[in-house]
Each structure stands twice: as C-alpha cells, then as structure tokens.
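Intended use. Records like the one below are meant for learning the mapping from a protein sequence to its folded structure. Do not use them to infer anything beyond what is encoded.
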Amino acid sequence: MVFKWKREADDIARVVPKKDVKGFFSKAVILSPNEKAAMVKNGVVDEIVESGKLYVGGLLKPGNIGKDVDVALMDTSPKDLQWAQTELWTRDNQKVACNGLLRFRIQDTKRFFQVLYAYTTPDKKGTRALSIQDIYKRLESEVLTLVLEPEVRQEDIEKLYGNRDLRLNIENELEMRLRSTLSMWGLEMLKYTVQWELGSYGKVMQATNDFQTREELAELDTLAVEGGFERRGREDVAGLRADHATVATEKDFHRDQKLKDVRSDLEAERLQYEADMQEAREAIGLKEELKLAKARGMRVELEVEQDMKDRDHGRDMEYLKHITEAGGKDVAKTVSEGREYGRMSPEQLEALAKVKQSEAIAKEDKVSFMMEVEDRERADSYRRQELDASMMGAAQGKKSPTVRKCPGCGSTIPSEASFCSQCGKKLTDI
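Structure written out for the chain above:
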C-alpha cells in the first residue's frame, strides 16, 4: 500500500511519524521523482533519500528505521505563488496596489528542513506540515511589507505613475530581498513578476483629460466668435482707411520729408563732431610727441652735462692723487678745498666765511673760558696754600717760605715760581 503524505494540494513538506504510515505486512513510502525524504533522528537530519521506495516497518519487511526516527517528506517540484499587496499608500495619500507571480523550489534540503521545524508546530499526533501559503505569510510579513510600503510611501503618485525607472528600482530591491530570504530558507527563486495597479489615478487622469478637451473646444468656439468680430472690425478700418488714404498719404509724405531733414542735420553734426574730435586727437598726439622730443633733448643735455662732470671729477681725482703723492695729504686737502670754494657762488662763500668765523669765535671763547677756569682754579689753589701757610705760621710762630707776593700786581704766588700767573711779570729771586 502506497503512503500518501500530502493532505492539501499546496503542501510542500510534512514530518510524518513512523506510526502514521499504514500497512501491516509492509510499511513503505514511495518517493516520486520530485520528492525527497529526510530521516530525522532526535531532531537532526540523519540521511537524505532522493528516490525509490523507503520501507519504514511491517511484519514481512520491518526496514532499517528505528523507533525514534521520523520521516520528513518534501516536494522539490517548482511551486507558483501568487502574491499581492493591496494597500500601499504614496506620499500624497493615494492608494496603489502591487501583485505578481513568484515561482520557487527546494534547493537545499537540510536548510529547508530547519525552516520546516522552525516555522511549524506539531499537532496532537506529532505531525508537522508546511504549505505554500505558510511560506507566503512569512514572505509577506518579512519581505513584501518591509520593502514595498517604505519605498512607495516616499514617492508621489504622479512620479510613481510616470517614472518607469523608479518602479524598476523598487522591483529590483524587492527581487533581491526575496532571493536572499528564499536562499536563506534553502529555496531557489525561478521566476519573479510584478504588476502595478495605480487605483483611481488613471480614472482621475482620464477625467482630467476629458475636462481639458471640453474646455479647449469651448475656448475654440469663443475664439471663433471673437475672430468674426475682429474680421468685421478690420473691414470697417479698411474702409475708413480707403476714405482717408489721400490725406494720410500726403501727411506721411510731409512727415517723411521732415524726418529726412532732421536726419540730414544730425548726420552733418555728427560728421562735424567726428572731424573736430579727429583734429583734437591729432593735436593731442602732436603735443605728446613734442613733450617726448623735449624730454629726450633734456635727457641728452643732462647726459652730456653729467658726462662732463664725470670727466672733470676724473681729472680732479687724478690731479689730487698726483698732488697727494708729491706734496702730502695737507696740500691735497688745501687744493681740494680751493676747488670746492671755486665752484661756490659769492653768497655761498660769504655764508661759509660767516660759519668759519662763528666756529673760530666759538673756539676762542672756549679757550678763554677754559683759561679763566684754569686761572680761577689756580687762584683757589694758591689761596688754599696761603690759608694753610697762615694757619701753620700761626701755629709755628714764623713766616712760611712756600709763597710770596708779586711786586707788580701784589698777587700771591708760590715761592718757586719764576713768572706771575696774573700779570706775567718775571720774578727775581729775593
């Protein structure tokens, strides 16, 4: 008897206890080409059986599976999953929807077995079952909602409607997240499609287009009526112009003549002004050239004068060198000063003579002052000596031989002096 482990059409995996496999003489599980069986021992996959008949017990064929071993049967054929997100809100609070097809199959049996035990709970008989809808619920809560809602909420409905690249970016992000999640569960994604439903935005756009069309048609009718009035007005104006054509032509002729006269006068004034400006520019240019020529002439004269001065200075230096070598530095200094005085004007010589005289007077005054100071100090010294001698004479009771009086002026002078310091008279020995 063949064991049918699927209870629902969308079942993809089921953990079956050994006791649930029916059969008395032989308990066998026949694996289809797209089915695999995992031997589960103490919650761990012990062996993977990919095809054939698997005996799990019976009277005639007891098999090689122990009592504490369960069988996890998995359908590895491609499965189609219709997914949908019916309530997605844009930034401008417009409701949109998104749906599509997701096709996948089991790729890694051991990893999918872990998902089977992680996302299912056993019933009273210890049976665990995982269906396509169970996988969809997990994808919806872990991927679809977390990707689509934040991305759509950041954009306006108009941008989402008219931007194909934006929708592709959202679809690519969703595809990467789905592929990553399915791979983590041991599943392989085979096909992935997305369809957008922008709700009532299309109807709003259609209504807007219809309204604009009606408004444009009404505007055209209004323009047609206005055009009729404008044509009739132009016809009336044309008739009036025809009546006054002769008078208008004559006035236009006189007006044109006046304009021509004014333009001719303005042109003549402009030409005269340009001629005056040209003459002024030429005069300015000539003046500038004269200034330049004068400056060049003055420069040449200064260069010649400087050259002559340099030559004179050279000759003077040679002459002073010769005099210095022949007569000494004093002669050279005298000659140099004589040459300097020869170049001076009478006023400069007079001023220099006054300066020299002032210096000589100042020097004489300084010498006189120094002599007076020296005489005063000498007189003070003599008075101190006389005072000392008087004091000593009073103490000793005899005349001091150290000083004497000048017979000419009566000044006290030292006894050893030969001349008087006050009058200059020669002293004879007494």
